[in-house]
Amino acid sequence: MTAVTDSAEPAAAGKDDDLDRRLRFDTKVAVLLRDDLAAWQRLNVTAFLISAIAGTNDRLMGEPYRDADGVQYLPMLGQPVLVFEGDASMIRTAHQRALRRQLPMSIFTAELFGTGNDVDNRAAVAAVRTEDLDLVGIAVHGPRNAVDRTVKGAHMHP
């Protein structure tokens, strides 16, 4: 996979100088999920949150995939996504940290499990003050150290 990122630096040159696949990313993408969600909810929330991160930053996207028969597939994010979990308090704390750091962030609230379309989703979020959002997940993208500090205290998702 050839990764395209905000500011990735190639590792030391090796045999494969054709866009070295061993990249150190200066940015990070992290998803933080509430630890009491059902398995299907975790998957659903992660998909929605990552779609927002990928959909707003073309530089995060890698190149299209092509199999040995020449069939082309859509590109995916060009850098790893780390998935964490924490309780409701941890999610609120991370949300506040991301806001303070002005990190690009997507959110998913408990109310969105009861809606069926984007219009209703946005209306459900718009009806609630920031401090009262019932967050079940957030995703953030930004400099590695800022993202690390934002999700500090959360645990890697099992």
What does this structure look like?
This protein is α+β, with helices and mostly antiparallel strands. It has one domain (21-152): Bit1 (3-Layer(aba) Sandwich), CATH 3.40.1490. The chain is 30% helix and 24% strand. The strands form three sheets. A five-stranded mixed beta sheet has the order 7-8-3-6-9, with helices on both faces. A two-stranded antiparallel ribbon has the order 1-2. A hairpin with a 5-residue loop joins strand 4 (65-66) and strand 5 (72-73). The model is unreliable at 1-15 (pLDDT under 50).
Strand-helix topology:
Layout: E1 9-10, E2 23-24, E3 27-34, H1 39-55, E4 65-66, E5 72-73, E6 81-86, H2 88-101, E7 105-109, H3 118-126, E8 135-143, H4 144-150, E9 155-156
Parallel strand pairs: 3-6
Antiparallel strand pairs: 1-2, 3-8, 4-5, 6-9, 7-8
